[in-house]
Design a protein that fits this description.
Elements (H helix, E strand, L loop, with lengths): L2 H10 L2 E6 L3 E6 L8 E5 L6 E2 L39 E2 L7 E2 L2 H15 L8 H17 L11 H11 L8 H10 L9 H20 L16 H14 E5 L5 E6 L7 E2 L5 E6 L2 E6 L10 E2 L8 H12 L16 H14 L13 H9 L6 H4 L14 H18 L3 H17 L10 H16 L3 H18 L5 H16 L4 H22 L4 H21 L2
Parallel strand pairs: 9-12
Antiparallel strand pairs: 1-2, 3-11, 4-8, 5-6, 7-8, 10-11
Helix pairs in contact: 2-3, 3-6, 3-7, 6-7, 9-13, 12-13, 12-15, 14-15, 15-16, 16-17, 17-18
Bound molecules: zinc ion (ZN) (3 copies).
One zinc ion binds next to loops.
């Protein structure tokens, strides 16, 4: 296995890996990539680890969710989903800690990895378990124990996802292992305390595998497990490159190593997104990407402030971000740098009530009651240059952003036109006087989000519609226009508007507009096939209900 095989694999997906003075290496497009397309699918090096809190909810082998419907949702082959009442899970009768949807999935897990970790007392430690899984996986792969066609579970799900999405070559297990060996581990600059902990884990696991007589029979190992130093390198690489696996609602449920997916660099304004179909990682484009342009995903939430992003990226991945938003050396086009750098100045700041008033539910309710929901009809027409309000408060901010940007998403203008409009808005928000507290900081967003959730719990639809619309304005300002978070939020908001009976037909019409927006975004971020695609179908189904009510 060599670099040539990796190059061939990436080329078959229209990608290239090139060296970069600032970033070590980067993935660039070899051919134009349309927004909403699958760039590549990536497989896990070893079975990902489900968070202890989520174990009872997912099959450890195929990741299908308890109570889920059709088995085809995940592209896996199992009849269990067809049972009435949805998918049922059974736990391992020895450890009583891991759950499986059927005997096939259990057998794959048991033979593949579970029998080596089933009785471990340290199994609750993610590092510990992950390292053991990596060692077992690599050894099994080297001595040919994995038969691509016969391994069900991971491989079946991967093949299904690849068949339904990818256009290029399918990733071989040997390639996965090779790419893992090339990933940066940053051992030299890691925290000494962390390194000491890794050494302890590595030593313990090495001894355990010897005692358990794990068959190290490949040519590389010759009966011996990898050295402690090698095991520590595995852990370092895992830490700098691991992914949190989430479902179609973006709720994280597991952690895994996807070496090919880890080749993509980070940007705080990403043009691609990482999604999952079962255990297969799917990288999708959020916008059209031109030949030669770098394809970037995001390692952190784009909705957190500059200092926090910097801390997260430095602490976990050991780099300072050079993206257009963070604007370091080599970040590219100057105008872009100016525009997105304003964004971070805008969203910084704390939230205090006016005149030092305490921010409680009552105060917030009053604040949001002043918001006037945008008229659905005016959302359909894009005003070329909407005048910013003379004074920016929550209400005028919401109306200004929604009226300026929603029509542009609906008409599908180019990324450049959209970005130009966005920079115009940033400049207006910067220069126009605003009330205190500043209505568009991330702290306000966090508060508004928890208030939104409370109003949903209480089924206060009118209030939820207003807060939800305000949050949408904040998302439009901060996130890329086809970001899945925004699509999901629009779906919830559309339901609030539809449920708000006091809003009458105006509310129904607005719900329809927001649903169209949700559909537009989710088609790009989630696609129309597989587990993620079923969400788009759900939106369509709801859209038909709303349309029936509108009589169209
Ligand atoms: Zn299963
Ligand atoms: Zn067990
Ligand atoms: Zn950045």
């Amino acid at each position: 296995m060599s670099a040539t095989i990796l190059t061939r694999h990436l080329h078959s997906h229209g990608l290239d890996l090139v060296t970069d003075t600032h970033k070590y290496r980067k993935v660039v497009a070899l051919r134009p990539l349309n927004k909403g397309s699958v760039v590549i699918t990536s497989r896990p090096l070893c079975n990902p680890i489900i968070f202890p809190t989520h174990r009872t909810q997912h099959c450890e082998t195929c990741f299908r969710t308890k109570g889920s419907g059709s088995a085809t949702d995940y592209g896996a082959s199992a009849a269990a989903g067809a049972r009435s009442g949805g998918l049922e899970l059974e736990r391992c009768s020895v450890c009583k800690k891991r759950y499986y949807c059927d005997r096939d999935c259990f057998t794959v897990a048991w033979k593949g990895w579970h029998k080596w970790v089933c009785q471990d007392k340290d199994m609750e430690d993610l590092d510990y378990e992950m390292l053991k899984m990596i060692v077992i996986s690599i050894e099994r792969l080297r001595n040919g124990a994995f038969k691509e066609s016969k391994q069900s579970g991971v491989a079946t799900a991967t093949a299904a996802a690849a068949a339904s999405h990818g256009t290029g070559e399918q990733e071989s297990l040997a390639l996965t292992e090779y790419v893992f060996s090339t990933l940066m581990g940053h051992e030299a600059i890691s925290d000494p305390a962390e390194i000491a902990k890794y050494r302890e884990i590595a030593t313990k696991i090495r001894e355990q595998l010897i005692v358990a007589k794990f068959p190290f029979k490949s040519e590389t190992s010759r009966g011996e497990p990898p050295s402690v130093a090698e095991l520590m390198r595995y852990l370092c690489r895992f830490h700098c490159n691991n992914f949190s696996i989430h479902d179609s609602q973006l709720f994280t449920m597991a952690e895994g190593t996807f070496p090919v997916g880890a080749l993509f660099n980070h940007s705080c304004r990403p043009n691609a997104i990482v999604m999952y179909e079962g255990q297969t990682q799917v990288v999708r484009t959020l916008e059209d990407i031109a030949v030669g342009q770098e394809v970037c995903t995001s390692y952190v939430d784009n909705g957190v402030q500059r200092a926090e992003r910097r801390q997260l990226l430095r602490g976990k991945y050991y780099f300072d971000c050079l993206c257009p938003r963070c604007g370091g050396e080599g970040s590219g086009i100057t105008t872009e740098k100016t525009g997105f750098r304003i964004l971070d100045d805008l969203i910084e700041g704390d939230q205090d009530g006016e005149d030092g008033k305490k921010v409680d539910g009552e105060w917030l309710t009053k604040q949001f009651e002043t918001i006037i929901l945008p008229g659905a009809r005016s959302l359909q027409a894009a005003g070329p240059s909407l005048q910013p309000p003379t004074m920016i408060n929550r209400g005028s901010f919401t109306s200004y952003i929604i009226h300026s940007l929603v029509p542009l998403i609906q008409t599908g203008v180019t990324e450049q036109e959209y970005t130009e409009r966005l920079f115009e808005i940033y400049n207006a928000l910067r220069t126009t006087p605003h009330c205190t507290p500043k209505p568009f900081t991330t702290t306000v967003m966090t508060n508004a989000t928890s208030f939104f959730n409370t109003s949903l719990e209480h089924q206060s639809w009118a209030l939820a519609s207003k807060i939800g619309t305000f949050i949408l304005a904040l998302y439009l300002m901060i996130y890329p226009r086809h970001h899945p978070l925004m699509g999901l939020h629009c779906f919830t908001l559309a339901k609030c508007l539809w449920n708000d009976v006091d809003g009458g037909m105006t509310s129904v019409r607005l719900s329809h507009e927001i649903l169209k927006l949700s559909h537009n975004i989710l088609t790009v971020s989630h696609g129309r096939t597989g587990q993620n695609g079923s969400l788009v179908k759900e939106v369509e189904e709801f859209m038909r209900t709303v349309e029936t009510e509108l009589g169209s």
